[in-house]
Amino acid sequence: MRGIADERAGLAEKGRSGSFANAQDKPASLQRCGVKVELGRRYRFSASHRLHTSRLSDEENRRVFGKCNNPFGHGHNYVLEIRLSGEIDESTGMIANLTDLDAFVEREVIDALDCKSLNEDVAVFRNVVPTTENLCIEIFERLKRFPGARLERVRIQETSNNGFEYAGE
Amino acid sequence: MRGIADERAGLAEKGRSGSFANAQDKPASLQRCGVKVELGRRYRFSASHRLHTSRLSDEENRRVFGKCNNPFGHGHNYVLEIRLSGEIDESTGMIANLTDLDAFVEREVIDALDCKSLNEDVAVFRNVVPTTENLCIEIFERLKRFPGARLERVRIQETSNNGFEYAGE
Amino acid sequence: MRGIADERAGLAEKGRSGSFANAQDKPASLQRCGVKVELGRRYRFSASHRLHTSRLSDEENRRVFGKCNNPFGHGHNYVLEIRLSGEIDESTGMIANLTDLDAFVEREVIDALDCKSLNEDVAVFRNVVPTTENLCIEIFERLKRFPGARLERVRIQETSNNGFEYAGE
Amino acid sequence: MRGIADERAGLAEKGRSGSFANAQDKPASLQRCGVKVELGRRYRFSASHRLHTSRLSDEENRRVFGKCNNPFGHGHNYVLEIRLSGEIDESTGMIANLTDLDAFVEREVIDALDCKSLNEDVAVFRNVVPTTENLCIEIFERLKRFPGARLERVRIQETSNNGFEYAGE
Amino acid sequence: MRGIADERAGLAEKGRSGSFANAQDKPASLQRCGVKVELGRRYRFSASHRLHTSRLSDEENRRVFGKCNNPFGHGHNYVLEIRLSGEIDESTGMIANLTDLDAFVEREVIDALDCKSLNEDVAVFRNVVPTTENLCIEIFERLKRFPGARLERVRIQETSNNGFEYAGE
Amino acid sequence: MRGIADERAGLAEKGRSGSFANAQDKPASLQRCGVKVELGRRYRFSASHRLHTSRLSDEENRRVFGKCNNPFGHGHNYVLEIRLSGEIDESTGMIANLTDLDAFVEREVIDALDCKSLNEDVAVFRNVVPTTENLCIEIFERLKRFPGARLERVRIQETSNNGFEYAGE
After folding, report:
1. What is the Cα–Cα distance from F3 to B62, expressed in whole angstroms?
2. Which residues of C touch D142 (CB under 8 A)?
3. Is E164 in the A-facing interface, judged by CB distances under 8 Å?
4. Nearest of E150, C48, C70, C125 to residue F130 by alpha carbon
5. CB of C95 within 8 A of CB of C84?
6. Mean pLDDT of C52-66
7. Which CA distances in Å does D131 have to C93, C103, C161, E101?
8. DSSP letter, residue A6
9. d(CA B31, CA B42)
């Protein structure tokens, strides 16, 4: 009495459909063991920064960084997309539990950067120019030990036109 | 020998189609005099701000503004949409020349706010909290004398979830 | 045994909850008669145009329309949003059937404009400059007789920064 | 020694600049009393629904609702935008505290609708077809008593092409 | 009398410009043989699902899947992007005919999934948890035999923050 | 007296934190030498095109290109995203100066294509069908000699559903 609209189930081609009748007995054969999938998840935070380095003269700073060298800084709505890869868990059908991932990212990144001044509130940027290139690396380092899946890449969209991506060394 | 794909031209209903044969002679009759259209145009700028007022105690400031009261500020990519209305010019088919409008907005708003700290670089916000509500009003005041069309509303999208709109008094 | 997660049903406040027990008998009392809602629906089409008018000299055309006066034209992905209002039908809970609306817009607008040159393929624009202001009016005229609901406004987003809106006369 | 980039502060035109020298003494005069601004805030939730009414025959249900009458339902990522208006508070520069608003919407709407079946989990939709028109009204009723500002409109984007808006009676 | 605005045509660098004079005779030399390009095309469908597996206890299901374990399900607007690679056809300048591709995707994927319950209406998901990870694989399997180009990857955006990607085994 | 909210600075793990005390003396050790980051930057232009080739009969052209073979052409808002990779400069924290990049892209691509007819105004497309596949290659060739970083890929989004990507040979 079920309404199965769909007779061409592609997954069946992988040898899983033969066991439909007794699927409850050995569901593992229906799952994809060792299949690698990539997850992308977006987070958003707002922060301010000033591009300036003590390694250059004031004149050089103005020439290189232009308006971004403004002494009082400016800011962005950063959109962070992290990409993780992993094998699909047989039982859950997931490569990572998003609840765990969100808690990890919240603690390691969002709490530290959201509504902050990168130059003043984040230790490493007191000695490193807080360009979005450097911010990608900083965030990659903070997230690479996430236990649930392998961190592949960090991408930060700084404005609607500008994005940066870092995939580790 | 032309490929007119379209026989149901709606504009014809407004009394313009009768003059198609000699359209070159009196094109004015084909234009819509006094028809009001609204134009919306978006601009983008990045700035930092700190929400804090000397009218409240430090404790109250923290309670009211939360993370946005962070002493070193934070920032946003503001998306400004201005709405203007006007009658369509008979010759040009436009209500305002976008080249003129862009130059006006650039001079009055973008130059003053892009890559700036609202609190430190914009005079009025030394005495007024630079919330996006107040920023809408400030921008409306700066743009309301645009000579080419009537400014109807200013809308600022502060984040992907937050927007504010001001339509004058 | 049903899982009603939600005890604060706002609609109940409008006098409908009292009849829950015998809802099958008089469902009409549960519907909102005469409540006006607005529907916005988006359509997309791609077309080319050239901004030029025989009412101006070539020199004036170049000055007024700038790059858009390029003799061979250029084009856009236009995003059309139409807004319709109506009362919610007691039985269907809808103000208009989208299947009917889509067929109407397809026939009156999309077939005539998609993958077309506005100047060459659309009769009215042989005598009227195909600005997006004028395109709004043309589309409003074509759609205003949709029988299922009242056409309130036509909005066309020409680029990610530029939009125009026409609400009839 | 401050870098005031901006000499044309528009707000000054409203009679506030004269008091810049002693702004600390009477900041109230610098604020805009009684100025009305509109706030739009977006929330997102995912839910399933089935369009079906006992007032129509099965055949009529299929004809009117098409694929949306599928017996097992389907679902959407609903984007809710609520619009509120209010006067700017002199001290805070805000029309409503977003922390309060978020808590209210979370409790009244998101908790009740996110990851739910509208037909099965939300009481009112056991007797009312869960179209997005009706969902707008339901949400308006739940939110209209927000104490901090006046609820003007509720808009729900059902898909990237479809949106509905309700402004109360 | 033609307006060739552009003298720096990059394609000319690839040895094609020498034959401009007699391009009609041997246009093949002007095309890029064997040049590989990737096409990404988006499709949208709305479906409901419930995350639940008989391999776990009810308590474990609730813990692992949280709100997504809701007995009556919920739903999403899924955005599917498929990436295909191929060599540019000399005559048509295309790697695949989008009309053919659309018909294939419509038949294999959209008809089967749009406005459906993944758990109830799609055979494979009666034995496999309908996570978006598994949905990527299912769609990849259904599309990998498209004759016109090589399927590289399937990406599904489940919400504005969540996406999954599968590139085959 | 500074408010360093953040004690878990990930960059410190890379051997840079030990030198914080005398950071002014050897800041180079704090920078990431030889770390490769990818930059994506978007540009937008509007152009018209007609898909037609003299290598096919008129009948074949209509069959292959469908509506896109319309004699008078149509157009798009093309969104160009270019991806460049490079090592982060020790002093500036950047892989390329966006001011330089923008000037290069403006001169080589935007000036030549914006508000143009690809078929009529761009030399190479008088002999090559101006599909977006071919447009990707043309733009890649024009940009690959940018001196500041390595051009990895060119992606053009033709409509909200269609994109093409070329990574060189």
Report:
1. 15
2. 8, 10
3. yes
4. C48
5. yes
6. 97
7. 6, 20, 32, 32
8. B
9. 27
Determine whether the interchain pair E40/F164 forms a contact, defined as Cβ–Cβ distance below 8 Å: yes
CB D95 within 8 A of CB D85: yes
Structure tokens at D101: 């608003």
Give B87's contacts in chain C (Cβ within 8 Å). Answer: none
Q: Distance between CA A151 and CA B40 in Å, rounded?
A: 42
Return phi, psi of residue E49, to 5°: -155, 160
B75:A73 CB<8 A: yes
pLDDT of residue E125: 97
Helical segments of chain B, H only: 58-65, 98-105, 111-113, 118-121, 132-143
CB < 8 Å & 24+ apart, contacts of F56-63 = F56/E91, F56/E92
Q: Is the Cβ of A152 closer than 8 Å to some Cβ of chain F?
A: no
Residue D71, helix vs strand vs coil: coil
* Rounded-to-10 torsion of CA F57, F59, F61, F65: -170
Give the contacts of E99 (CB within 8 A, at least 6 positions apart): F66
pLDDT digits (tens, 9 = 90+) for F55-80: 999 999 999 999 999 999 999 999 99
Contacts of D95 in chain B (CB under 8 A): 133
Report pLDDT digits (tens) over D9-32.
Answer: 344 444 333 222 333 333 333 445
Gap from D91 CA to chain B (nearest CA, Å)? 6
pLDDT at A77 over 50: yes
pLDDT tops 60 at residue E26 = no
Main-chain phi, psi angles of B47, to 5 degrees: -150, 165
Q: pLDDT per residue over A134-166, tens digit each?
A: 999 999 999 999 998 999 999 999 999 999 999
Q: Are C83 and C96 in contact (CB under 8 A)?
A: no
Q: What is the DSSP string of E54-98?
A: TTS-HHHHHHHHGGGG-TT-EEEEEEEEEEEEEEPPTTT--SS-H
Each residue's pLDDT tens digit, D83-125: 999 999 989 999 999 999 999 999 999 999 999 999 999 999 9
CA dist., res. E94 & res. A83, Å (int) = 31
Mean pLDDT to the nearest integer, C5-32: 37
Of B8, B27, B40, the CB nearest to C55: B27
**Is the pLDDT confidence value at C16 over 80?**
no
Give the pair of three-digit tokens for residue C20.
């829950």
How far apart are the CA of C10 and the nearest CA of chain E, in angstroms? 21
Query: DSSP letters of C81-103?
Result: EEEEEEEPPTTT--SS-HHHHHH
Query: Cα separation of D168 and D141, whole Å?
Result: 8
Q: Among positive and negative, which fits the CA dihedral A65, A66, A72, A74?
A: negative
Q: What letter represents residue A117's amino acid?
A: S
List, for residues A40-66, the tens digit of each pLDDT value. 999 999 999 999 999 999 999 999 999
Chain C nearest CA to F40, separation (Å): 19
Token pair for residue B84? 């203007």
Amino acid at F148: G
Tokens 């939360």 belong to B66
Task: Tell me the pTM.
Answer: 0.86
Cα–Cα distance for residue pair B84/A55, rounded to 1 Å: 47
Q: Which of F:4-43 have CB within 8 Å of C?
A: none
Residues of B in contact with D100 (CB under 8 A): none
Residue pair E8/F142 in contact by the 8 Å Cβ criterion: yes
Residue C93 to residue D55, Cβ atoms within 8 A: no
- Of the two residues E107 and F35, the one the predictor is more confident about is E107
What lies within 8 Å, CB to CB, of B21 at 6+ separation is none
Do F66 and E94 touch, CB atoms closer than 8 A? no
DSSP label at residue F120: H
Coil, strand, or helix at residue B106? helix
Task: Please report, as a single letter, which amino acid is at residue C40.
Answer: G
The answer to whether the CB atoms of D54 and C27 lie below 8 A apart is yes
